[in-house]
Design brief:
Length: 395
């Protein structure tokens, strides 16, 4: 008798997993594989990281870095992270007290919430959002509360924002540069957020994974550098996007010693640690010269312009992103049904995968007319996708 039969009819799942669905982004990758399409859905590059980073990973395996690293990160990598956040982000960090290396920014986010948020509390999230944050809050026993980003500039209304803070608010999640819109929060917006966090004694958890992917002179500012924020901010970033190593699963948190201790405990029991040899290679990556980051931005600017041009030409309405590597489009020019129907038709009939917009909103209706494309792909891939998208007929 199979296990399925044995337990048939018995409720097998905890209530908490019934409150959210599987990731739509990762589901679209599976759909894309099924139809052999071009994957502009999930944000992972279809090109390799720099040769020297790959070599460093191979070398680390050969040199014997094959057993657990220290739970919260190898000393070499924590040192490299502390140097990087000091110079690039302007956040002074002690590798012994302020740094935890995690399995991707994904683990960093959930470990941060599990370490700081109590069941019954609330977590503020900007909408549209990257789909992990709601389930992360739920898994911590908390409820997400949403603040809308609206209009072409994707601004939030400071009054609506103020109202989102309640006596139960424990944390706020800020993602800048922003997925899925490409918004880069301005200094003035960050000031408003910082003031509210201080006034309401709230912890800010930032997702800065796209911090190096910026366009048109946009500047990345870390919330932790604003007045009153260093003690109450958990700064999260990782290696995946900057060095094109999404499969290595390397991220980190920077926080006060007290918060760091809490995150280290959660991280220890979730995963024990991130892959040891890849941590050594990550330390090499973080020490690449400035020219690497300049090249990265130039390459991404070309990819952005290519996809943006193709989408506009095909008839999508979109705002050009200032950061990250996504374009959130409106597709009302097509006779398309809702976002999920359109995305399914696109992957099945046109051979291009994108992400249905509703997965970025808690009121699914708000995203019914939108789909998101990523441009972290080779120019040939984007050109091939562009040719396919141009076959779409408009209303
Ligand atoms: N951040 C990527 C995206 O939005 C996906 C990350 C992931 O799937 N873990 O597409």
């Amino acid at each position: 008798m199979g296990v399925g039969k044995l337990f048939k009819g018995v409720a097998m799942l905890a209530e908490r997993v019934k409150t959210f669905t599987e990731s739509v982004i990762r589901g679209m990758t599976r759909e894309c594989l099924k139809y052999g399409g071009i994957n502009l859905a999930q944000g992972f590059p279809d090109f390799d990281p720099p040769e020297e980073i790959k070599e460093a990973a191979v070398r680390a395996i050969r040199d014997g870095y094959n057993q657990y690293a220290i739970t919260w990160g190898s000393p070499n990598l924590r040192q490299a992270i502390a140097e990087k956040v000091g110079t690039y982000n302007g956040i002074p960090a002690d590798p012994e007290k302020n740094v935890v290396v995690t399995c991707g920014a994904t683990e960093a986010m959930i470990a941060s919430l599990l370490a700081t948020v109590n069941p019954g509390e609330e977590v503020i999230v900007f909408e549209p959002f990257y789909e992990n944050y709601g389930p992360d809050a739920t898994l911590a026993g908390a409820s997400p509360r949403y603040v809308s980003l609206r209009g072409p500039q994707l601004r939030f209304d400071p009054e609506e924002m103020e109202k989102a803070f309640t006596p139960r608010t424990r944390a706020l999640i800020l993602n800048t540069p922003h997925n899925p819109t490409g918004k880069v929060f301005s200094g003035e917006e960050l000031e408003i957020i910082a003031r509210l966090c201080c006034r309401h004694n709230v912890i800010a958890v930032t997702d800065e994974i796209y911090e190096h992917i910026l366009y048109d002179g946009a500047r990345h500012v870390s919330l932790a550098t604003l007045e009153g924020m260093s003690e109450r901010t958990i700064t999260i970033s990782g290696l995946s996007k900057t060095y094109s190593v999404t499969g290595w699963r390397l991220g980190y948190t920077i926080a006060s010693p007290e918060i760091t201790d809490g995150i280290r405990k959660v991280h220890d029991f979730l995963t024990v640690g991130a892959p040891a040899p890849l941590q050594e290679a990550a330390a090499v990556a973080l020490r690449l010269p400035d020219s690497y980051y300049q090249g990265l931005q130039l390459d991404y600017a070309r990819r952005r312009d290519l996809l943006y041009g193709a989408l506009c030409e095909a008839g999508f309405q979109c705002t050009i992103p200032k950061g990250a590597y996504y374009i959130l489009t409106n597709f009302e020019a097509f006779d398309a049904g809702d976002d999920t129907e359109f995305a399914m038709r696109l992957v099945r009939d046109v051979g291009v995968a994108a992400v249905p917009g509703s997965s970025f909103y808690h009121h699914a209706d708000l995203g019914k007319g939108q789909i998101r494309f990523t441009f972290c792909k080779r120019e040939e891939t984007l050109q091939a996708a562009a040719r396919r998208l141009l076959t779409l007929t408009r209303l």
